[in-house]
Amino acid sequence: MSPSLLCFPWPALALSLGLSLLPSCATAQPAAEAAPTASSPAVAPLPVPQVAPLAALPPDGVDVEEGRRLQGLTQVAIAGVALYVVTEAEGGASAGAALHGGMATANTSLKVTGLDPLRLQALADLARARTEAALVARGIAVMPQAQLAALPAFAELQQVADTAPLAFDAQGGKGQAYSASGLPLLHRDEMAWLSRASGTGLLGAMTGRFEDAYVALGDKMSGGFKTGRVEPALERLGQQAGMPLVLVRLVLTAAQVQGSGSRWGFTAGTETRNTLLMPAWTNRILVRRSGGDYARVSLKKGWASEAGLGELVDVTTTGQKAVSVLTTAFTLLAAANGVGRGVSSSSQSYELRSSPEVFDAVATPQVEATLASLTQALAP
């Protein structure tokens, strides 16, 4: 490089270029926020969608494992009903990593606001009631919860269970796990209990099992220790009750972010979705028989609501926009001078502003239909 080029003020040029690309609000002095006044207009309530009752899925809409253990159920005890509600999610994507030129990255976060923990607890209680009603409708008697709670092993199970509501932060997002009132919350990875893999036959043996995206890695690593405490308590409870135990788990993902991009592509992006999704596999009913013999019925595919959960609002801050612009500007400038590669960077934040009334209107029919679908596999 010639002396003139070495002396050229590249940092100043990069700074000038980056600042010129910044949003105008990023370089302006922050204005004082106006103090709220009594005459400030109230926020209009969100319209509550009218969602009709949903029909149960056909038999091929659920996945059954060890189906013979789901037959001959004349009487059962409901030992657990867990409701997971995902309210925060993040997603990212990149493109061009395998190319010699530039690459693109996109990252998006989504947070659901406006939900009421008391209403979510009520939804967990409703799920327990609907489970019992669906089982009774199929000719399967259910032990009264008070009678189950009076057994000595039930108190033992409560001691080794998790405290509800439980905050979780896993691959599938962040949220709260609720338990039906009076029942223990058993938060653990259960994907490896039965034979499910991502393929069948030889393909199934060569590919990994499905991962539980709503149990954190740390909880999975300590799963053996927890199982060593929970399983004996469940065994004793089943023996004292004298009947199989039913354990229900429902997962409602209100926050969803999906990325799109590839190593050989030229663009990367993310998509936020204003729907309620009940994912495959993790929405399930477990039946535990004496001796630790399990059977499971779960959703075979994710079930998304047609109605939205509220208003999706872009809350990306000026700082986030500035970082994206500066990252793009500096990396492109460096790449032009043979240093590294240019990166087109994008970072966004969204809020899905819901309300207890809207969430109930969308979630309740879906929870009821899911339970009706799953209990179809259980028979006296």
Write structural notes for this entry:
With 380 residues, the chain is an alpha+beta fold. The chain has one domain (53-375). It has eleven helices and 15 strands. The protein has helices at residues 3-6, 10-21, 24-27, 117-137, 145-149, 152-160, 201-206, 217-221, 223-241, 318-336, 356-375, and strands at 62-65, 75-95, 103-113, 141-142, 166-170, 173-179, 245-253, 257-260, 269-272, 277-278, 284-289, 293-299, 303-304, 311-314, 343-353. Strands 1, 2, 3, 4, 5, 6, 7, 11, 12, 14 and 15 form an eleven-stranded mixed beta sheet that branches. The chain starts with a helix and ends in a 5-residue tail after the last helix. Residues 1-28 form the signal peptide.
Helix vs. strand class:
alpha+beta
| Biggest beta-sheet profile | 11 strands, mixed
**Alpha carbon gap, first and last residue:** 84 Å
What percentage of the residues does DSSP assign to strands (E)? 25-35%
Q: What is the H/E string?
A: HHHEEEHEHHEEHHHEEEEEEEEHEH
Count of individual domains:
1
Flag low-confidence runs.
1-15, 24-40, 96-100, 259-269
Count of helical regions: 11
> How much helical structure, as a percent, in the residues?
25-40%
How many beta-strand runs?
15
User: What general form does the structure show?
Assistant: globular
Mean of residue pLDDT? 79
Q: Write down the Rg.
A: 26 Å
Quick overview of this protein structure:
Residues 1-28 form the signal peptide. This protein is of the alpha+beta class and 380 residues long. It has one domain (53-375).
